Amino acid sequence: MAGSTATADPSDRHHHQGPAAVAFVGASHLNLLLLFGAIRRFELSPPGSPARGRARLAVWLLTATLTAAFTWKIGAMLPLGFAVAAWVMAAATVIGGFYMLFLHGEK
Question: TM spans, by residue (predicted)?
Answer without folding.
Answer: 20-37, 57-74, 80-102
